[in-house]
Amino acid sequence: MATEHTEATIKIQAKDRHFMHPWEDVTAIGSEARTVIAKAEGIYITDSDGNRLIDGPGGMWCVNVGHGREEIVEAVAAQMRDLSYFSPWSATAAPAAILAERLAALAPGDLNNVFFTTGGSTAVDSALRFVFFYNNCLGRPEKKHIISRVGAYHGSTYLSASCSGKMLEKANMDMVEDRVHLIQNPNPALRPAGMSTEGFCDQKVEDLERKILELGADKVAAFIAEPVLASGGVIIPPEGYYQRCHEVCRKHDVLFIADEVVTAFGRLGHYFASKDVFGVEPDMLTTAKGLTSGYVPMGALFISDRLMVDIKAAGNESKGFFSGFTYSGHPVAAAAALANLDIFERDALLDHVHNVAPHFEKRLQELADLPMVRDIRVKGLMAGVECCLDPDKPDNERDMNFLLEVDDICQENGLLLRPVYSSAVLSPPLTITTKQIDTLVGILRLGLETAWKKYKA
Ligand code: PMP
């Protein structure tokens, strides 16, 4: 932000040069004076200079029940007093056991086996490792190829990053290349002129089937997909796409992994979006973020009963899935997740999302009158407002810089944004009210208009 900082802020910014932030340009460590977040309450964060900002991205798509929830604080403190840790390898403890049962009851289909992880990347990594394990157990070690999509984000471990399709983020980073294959995502903006939405959907589903056939169905193990590509820019698939991809996977005995790290726990108005929004019961499902609303790190991989039955049926000898974490089912994280779920129930948060989401969409769509706004994509309480300064000459870097300028102006006026490439991405806490949505959109409009005037000058 361009404002004058307090001495306290400057001191923290100086110490921050030792904090190597994620996704940081290592040639510029310490050169950026970042906003220092000091406190948070509800949908607001307060920086160390005392400025209060709407948390537009909801942390990183994770602060679903809002900041500062005393119930979670109390649950976490009480759990730490009672039992701060147990070894999940040799024993169990009430919070993780109760949470696993509660999650299995909420999850779609027969996703009754909950494998706790430390976050989303480790949930995806565990899913992929389970896929390899599964096919080894079934005596088909050649069935190991994974299909993912351009623009997808699945995590930052070696394997999950390899399945991501954000090409700029793959530069200089080695990847697992022999087993991972990307197909194009169903971004409606890629629909060729003259092609109907249905025809475009057919084409994208065919892309998946063609890739499976090209590699050989006996070699393809799994397809991994976010129901709505989140950090790829909030890409909403055409009607029927997700379901038909699932059918193609079933037809070719390819496992369908739903990456619901962003979309689970209310973002689209349901605990899980796969079944309730897109009509799919996946074979595996990954979550994190909204599971604890970011209060304590935790992720969870859900695995279908069917896969366990297949493994049992394949042979008599015992089969160890030799994968796990010191913090699998951590009692403090599980206590936070249980208190988080209690808030969802007590505050009828899913109903609230259903009530405010149409207003969120309507107000954001009003930005379409601005000359630099190219596309506005909204689903539930997630949105991407894409900008393009010159539609005849799209320029990623220039459009990205424009968004950074918009973010600066918005921050000066009380809104933290998340620029992702040429889109401003929003996923505010689910508790946001219609009045707060009006304020958010008003500041975003001001940011876009002011940055546009500067650009034109
Ligand atoms: N999958 C998706 C869809 C995500 O958006 C993310 C994080 N943004 C991840 C996986 C990785 O989660 P984490 O950062 O908790 O490891």
UniProtKB/TrEMBL annotation:
Recorded GO MF terms: beta-alanine:pyruvate transaminase activity; pyridoxal phosphate binding
Keyword Transferase applies: yes
Domain of life of the source: Bacteria
Keywords assigned by UniProt, alphabetized: Aminotransferase, Pyridoxal phosphate, Pyruvate, Transferase
EC number: 2.6.1.18
Cofactor(s) needed by this chain: pyridoxal 5'-phosphate
Gene3D superfamilies according to UniProt: Aspartate Aminotransferase, domain 1 (3.90.1150.10), Type I PLP-dependent aspartate aminotransferase-like (Major domain) (3.40.640.10)
InterPro entries in alphabetical order: Aminotrans_3, Aminotrans_3_PPA_site, PyrdxlP-dep_Trfase, PyrdxlP-dep_Trfase_major, PyrdxlP-dep_Trfase_small
Family statement drawn from the similarity comment of this UniProt entry: Belongs to the class-III pyridoxal-phosphate-dependent aminotransferase family.
Protein name (database record): Omega-amino acid--pyruvate aminotransferase
